[in-house]
Structure formats: structure tokens, C-alpha cells
Design brief:
By secondary structure, the protein is mostly helical. The chain has one domain. Helices cover 76% and strands 0% of the residues. The protein is built from 18 helices and no strands. The protein has helices spanning 2-12, 16-30, 41-58, 62-79, 89-119, 122-140, 148-155, 158-164, 170-183, 189-212, 216-232, 242-272, 276-287, 293-306, 311-323, 325-335, 343-354, 363-372. The longest helix has 31 residues, at 89-119. The chain starts with a helix and ends with a helix.
């Protein structure tokens, strides 16, 4: 009965439809990998990651959150290696090395934060805070700990990368949000400034790297680094009044959905090409053109930063959005090779249409966040 209740709660959570949409697109895109070495198992892995992601929105128990972090991260160790021929072990070894280190740092940091909060130790809190952020940065690819991202994104199969760059990004941020919301009473301005500086570095390195990258895969790799910097910026509002915290988290989660649908669409386009309409829609959302999803995510983040007294970081975010315009338009030329009826083109079309979900101003999304992160 408890298992049934858990599954019902997972289904009922407001975030479930969007997460399931990301997972279904990931599963559909896997059909495009011919001679897949783990066919069937890969679908089950993506489904498990989706269920774990949705459950992460529901629980506040530290043990469960850290277990879900591992449950989502571990399948990617194998998924990143699938290819048209033999398993891409070389890419897998590089990826797994960084992910294991990230997992250790993240779990150590989260545990230290809870313990420091219980004994009110600022020194231990600062150490735990830094360990958590370092682990998160390694896990999702925040600069300057992003070295694995360009090589893995370029060397691995585009469909495999689309899963790593989309569905796998949610749980690390959800867990970090919940850990810090529960323990951040000891956070002080110095720690938040360090976090803001790391965020700004990731924005600039990611966008400058994308401007100079030669291939579409490498452009998307550095685009991910920049996007992770935007989302990391939301953590500086963690000690602000609740209203602004909810806007920060709403902006961060919306940006995760922008990144997820966008990376699925673009990496499927790399596999088989796509229509210019799809590519433009994805690019305009990443740039932040209203009323697409990417506009609202950045607007919510900027709003939270301004009212958390980090105006300078909000300005840098706007500047970096402007910097990103040339390479997103270049991506259209690289992948917008024309429409043909394939699985990957269908996936790209639905990914692009997902950016239109915010044609109606998404105040509803902030309300959902306020209910789920209270």
C-alpha cells in the first residue's frame, strides 16, 4: 500500500508532466541509435531516472535525497558509452572519473552542512558549503570545473549526450536547493559572494568558449557550461525573503527545462539534421526572446538577483545573454539542414514546441515552486 501511495504521489506532483515529457523524448531519441548494445536496458534506465527525479521534488529526507542523487547519476555511466558500434569505453572512463569525484564531494558537503547546522558551527558549515558547490559544479559542468564537458560532448554519441545534458541535470540542483534551504541559516555574505563569482566565471567561460568552438557539439558543450552558471546564480538568493527565493528556484528550474528540451532538440538535430523552424525556436528560447520559456527563466532569475542585492550579477547575466546571440544563430546554420521524416526530427519538433509552454506568463510555475519548496 505504501508503494502504491508513493507512485500516486509521484504521478500527482505538478512537475511530473514536464519531467515525463523530457524522459519520453529521451527514450524516443534512443530509437535512432542503431545496433544499440544495451537496447531495452537503456529505456529502463531513463525511466528510472525520471521517477527518481520526480520523487526528488517530493522528499526532504537527506538520506533519500542523496540516494536519489546516486540513482540518477549512476545510469549515466553506462548511457554515455552507447554508440552505433562498440561501447565507447574511452569516453566512459573520463566521464565516470569526474562523476565519482563529484558524487563523493557532493555527499560529503551535504552531510557536513546538516551536521554543522545541528551544532551551529560556522567553520564546518563553510567547509560543507564549499564541498557541496564543488561537487555540484563537477557533476553538472560549472566552470572552472567543466574540463570534462567539451571532450565528452564531442566524443560521445549525440543521443547519449542529450540524456546526460537534459534529464540528468535536475536532481543535483533539486537536492542542493533543498539541502541549502534546510541549513542556510549560517550562510554569510562572503560565501554567497564566492558562489556568485563562480557563477559569473561559468557564464563568461561558457559563452566565450561557445563563440570560439568549431563544431556544433562543442558549441552545445560550452552552452551547457554557461547555462549551468545561470542556474548556479540562483543560489545566492537562498537566504533572501521567501518570495525572492521562490522566484530564484522557479527561474533555475525553468532554465533547467529550457536546457533539457533545448539540448534534446539540438543533439537530435546533430544526429540527422532538422528544419530551420525548430532550430530557430530552440535558439531564440536559449537567447531569452519573449515569450519563450528561456525569457521567463532568465527574468525570474534576474528578479531574484536584483532583490537579493546582487544587481551586478544580474547585469552580468544580461550581458552574457547578449554574448550568446551569435553562436546560437550559428547553430541554426549548422543543424538547420532541412526537414525529413525521422524519429530524431520528430523529437526535435516536440522539443522546440515545448518552448511555447510559457506563451501565457508562467506565474503558475512560481506558485508550484512555492508549494513544493515551502
Amino acid at each position: 500500500m505504501s508503494v502504491f501511495a508513493t507512485l500516486l504521489a509521484i504521478y500527482a506532483t505538478p512537475f511530473a508532466p514536464l519531467i515525463f515529457a523530457v524522459a519520453i523524448l529521451n527514450i524516443a531519441s534512443l530509437l535512432a541509435i542503431r545496433r544499440n548494445q544495451i537496447v531495452g536496458v537503456d529505456y529502463a534506465m531513463v525511466a528510472l531516472m525520471a521517477v527518481a527525479t520526480i520523487y526528488a521534488f517530493l522528499t526532504w529526507d537527506l538520506g533519500e535525497l542523496l540516494l536519489l542523487f546516486i540513482v540518477v547519476s549512476t545510469p549515466t555511466y553506462l548511457l554515455i558509452m552507447i554508440s552505433e558500434g562498440r561501447l565507447n569505453v574511452e569516453v566512459g572512463v573520463k566521464y565516470v572519473t569526474f562523476m565519482v569525484l563529484a558524487t563523493v564531494l557532493f555527499i560529503m558537503g551535504a552531510s557536513m552542512l546538516y551536521y554543522a547546522h545541528s551544532i551551529q558551527s560556522y567553520t564546518l558549515f563553510a567547509l560543507g558549503f564549499l564541498a557541496l558547490i564543488l561537487g555540484l559544479a563537477l557533476e553538472v559542468g560549472v566552470a572552472p570545473l567543466h574540463e570534462w564537458v567539451p571532450d565528452v560532448f564531442e566524443s560521445a554519441n549525440p543521443i547519449a549526450v542529450s540524456i546526460i545534458a537534459s534529464l540528468a541535470k535536475f536532481v543535483p540542483f533539486i537536492v542542493a536547493y533543498k539541502v541549502l534551504l534546510s541549513t542556510a541559516t549560517l550562510a554569510v555574505e562572503q560565501l554567497l559572494i564566492i558562489l556568485a563569482v563562480i557563477s559569473a566565471i561559468s557564464m563568461f567561460l561558457g559563452n566565450i568558449g561557445a563563440l570560439t568552438a568549431k563544431t556544433a557539439s562543442r558549441v552545445l558543450a560550452y552552452s551547457t557550461v554557461a547555462n549551468m552558471g545561470y542556474i548556479l546564480a540562483t543560489f545566492v538568493a537562498i537566504t533572501a525573503p521567501k518570495e525572492f527565493v521562490y522566484y530564484a528556484i522557479a527561474g533555475g528550474l525553468l532554465q533547467l527545462f529550457v536546457n533539457a528540451f533545448g539540448k534534446i532538440g539540438f543533439f537530435n538535430s546533430i544526429k540527422d539534421g532538422s528544419s530551420s523552424f525548430n532550430a530557430y525556436l530552440l535558439s531564440f528560447s536559449f537567447i531569452g526572446l519573449p515569450p519563450l520559456m528561456g525569457f521567463w527563466s532568465k527574468l525570474f532569475i534576474i528578479y531574484a538577483l536584483v532583490f537579493s542585492n546582487f544587481v551586478w550579477l544580474a547585469v552580468l547575466l544580461v550581458i552574457n545573454s547578449a554574448i550568446s546571440v551569435p553562436y546560437y544563430l550559428r547553430l541554426v546554420r549548422l543543424v538547420g539542414t532541412g526537414w525529413k521524416f525521422t524519429i530524431t526530427n520528430a523529437v526535435t519538433l516536440f522539443s522546440a514546441l515545448a518552448m511555447l509552454l510559457t506563451l501565457i506568463p508562467p506565474s503558475w510555475f512560481v506558485e508550484i515552486v512555492a508549494g513544493g519548496f515551502r
